[in-house]
Design a protein that fits this description.
With 202 residues, the chain is mostly helical. 61% of the residues lie in helices and 0% in strands. The longest helix is centred in the last third of the chain and has 24 residues. The chain is built from eleven helices and no strands.
Length: 202
């Protein structure tokens, strides 16, 4: 009987901590981040459909791809951003490593499932617009983590917060801009404020 360890291996994403070089008030796992990005990506796609019509987007497809967007880190670990982007040579080497890790993960699936899943694991199932929305969701998740740390009184993430804000603005992504204006401020609310009946005014 042949066995396929793909899902059992990915279940270990909950043991991989993000922000390895930062002093955090609460540890965030890759598994937790992945779920956040999937929710954010789905939301951005719905915003795209309802407020910024254009090239069609598929919220469910993007959300599933988001669930696998960091799957290769089960092989590579979460490399800190300052290290990953230190220079072009290192970045290209790491991209090659990510591609190799994605291929290895695919081979851990049942043979008939491999070609179906490969596009989600590599992101190749997505259009250019969908990839941009997923990237925006990834950055939003990082920004929200920075805000959480700031709310906890931790100044360690101040620089990272500024970097993520600048990166999001530089994307010129109207869906992300909409989220930043209309939804991100609510992450600073208390539970009582979040649970109150509307209307909500900024």
């Amino acid at each position: 009987m042949k066995l396929y360890p793909f899902n059992a291996l990915l279940a270990r994403m909950k043991y991989i901590a993000r922000w390895g070089l930062m002093r955090s008030s609460r540890t965030e796992s890759v598994s937790e981040h992945t779920a956040d990005v999937a929710i954010l990506a789905h939301t951005l796609c719905v915003i795209a459909q309802q407020y910024f019509p254009g090239e069609a987007v598929r919220p469910e497809t993007v959300a599933v791809a988001a669930l696998y967007h960091d799957a290769d880190e089960i092989m590579t670990g979460d490399l800190p951003t300052p290290v990953k982007y230190k220079n072009e040579r290192l970045l290209h080497a790491f991209k090659d490593l990510e591609a190799e890790a994605s291929g290895t993960l695919c081979r851990l699936l049942p043979e008939r499932a491999q070609p179906v899943m490969a596009g989600y694991i590599t992101g190749e199932v997505l259009t250019a617009r969908e990839k941009r929305l997923l990237k925006a969701a990834d950055r939003l998740s990082a920004l929200i983590k920075c805000i959480d740390e700031e709310q906890a009184g931790n100044r360690e993430f101040a620089g990272a917060k500024a970097q993520q804000e600048a990166a999001l603005r530089a994307m010129s992504c109207p869906e992300a801009d909409y989220f930043l204006q209309h939804m991100l401020p609510c992450y600073r609310w208390t539970l009582d404020e979040l649970s109150a009946d509307g209307p909500f005014e900024g």
